[in-house]
Write a structure and sequence with these properties.
About 45% of the residues lie in helices and about 20% in strands. By secondary structure, the chain is α+β, with helices and mostly antiparallel strands. The two termini are about 30 Å apart.
Length: about 140
């Protein structure tokens, strides 16, 4: 691991700047490598624990409770807002937030006919899995 505290300042600002620039570059390289290793570990955790399309999956090891949380991003195509407003009428403002995000609470309880219309205009993609690890005491 790199140790900034043990770097010796010099009387030559140019040399010190050179050292700090190299030090910073090494840190950035290490962070990138650590992110890659973290992503690989998380992918394996998801393989071992499983991942619901939406919701939490929990598994235990000897020392840890590990949870994966899956979800879907839901986005309405901008070109479809006017179409939806005409088709949904008064339901439009209940289901679509002002910033044009889907109101998921109302969506989940909406009438099937309304959901069917919305589904034709939604673009869904998986969210990045969230992983929570708690040590068992």
């Amino acid at each position: 691991m790199l140790d900034f505290q043990n770097m010796t300042p010099t009387n030559n600002p140019r040399e010190e700047l050179e050292s700090l620039a190299k030090y910073r570059k090494k840190i950035i390289d290490e962070i990138a490598e650590l992110r890659k290793l973290k992503d690989e570990a998380e992918s394996r955790i998801v393989e071992l624990v499983g991942l619901k399309e939406e919701g939490t999956t929990t598994r235990r090891s000897n020392s840890f409770v590990v949870k994966t949380v899956g979800g879907l991003n839901r986005k309405i195509e901008t070109k479809d807002y006017k179409i939806l407003e005409a088709q949904l009428g008064e339901n439009f403002t209940d289901l679509i937030n002002v910033k044009m995000d889907l109101n998921l609470t109302n969506f989940r309880t909406a009438d099937d006919s309304v959901v069917k219309i919305l589904m034709e205009h939604l673009v869904m993609s998986p969210k990045k899995p969230y992983i929570k690890i708690e040590e068992i005491k």
